[in-house]
# Entry
Amino acid sequence: MKFLTLKDIKELIEKGQIDIKKHLGQHFLIDKNARDKIISFGEFNKKDIVIEIGPGLGSLTEGIVRKVKEYYGFEIDNDFCRILEENFASFKNVHIIKRDFLQTDETFWNSFKGKVKIIGNTPYYLSTPILFHILKFHNKIELALLTVQKEVGEKFVGKPKTKQYGPISVLLYIYSDTKICYYLNKNVFYPRPKVESVVVKILPLKKLRIEVNKEKNFLEFLPLIFSYRRKKLTNVIKRVFKIDKEKIEKSLEEIGIKGMKRVEELIPEEIYNLYKVITKLKEGG
# Structure
């Protein structure tokens, strides 16, 4: 087992052992210093159970497996699985799972007695679905360390009154402490991606900042209310939820929100109060 350099990866391609599938967003980490820096934010130790999302050729894996108790790598590419199984055959704590991480269910997560740590250089087109899946099982997760597209990472930590602020910013505020901890140069990957990348550290909270009622409905509400983020609140609610303007204004006044405000100006607590009001109005309350 060793860290695969650019030369090693090109040899695998030339020998026909792997085929880079651009449509799956496959980019390999080829800078060992950057790899070590990413891993350092996980603070891994011998008590840890680690799940890696899409280990690829094992650049992160190689730096993790000696540090932790158990390692589970979810990989859907058959060629990568074969190489991972060959390279880490001597490690009894390594489990390569030929399955999509997004297919993990309660049975899988409940098989762990304690909490797990997650790491992954995620395919950029799947970053948001992966995040939503992680949040679904937040009570089983100690931390998640994800490499994502820079613009996506900035949305994860977006604040009110900024263009980065949106549904995902609100959710991560409710469920976690989240921060961007590392910016990655394009040159640390092969093939070189067209976009910049960041490493985001997500620490799920033991007690949520907001106790969300009917979580599924709230998740459906967020993208709707943000669909006209720069419009006046009363106009957005009337247009999206088909509620009478007078009823809206009265209800907003009761919760201390001015109808002239824009959605992007509301803090998460105000957005949740707005959700409760709109739910009540739609139910005829």
About this structure: The two ends are 64 Å apart (CA to CA). The first strand starts at residue 28 and ends at 29.
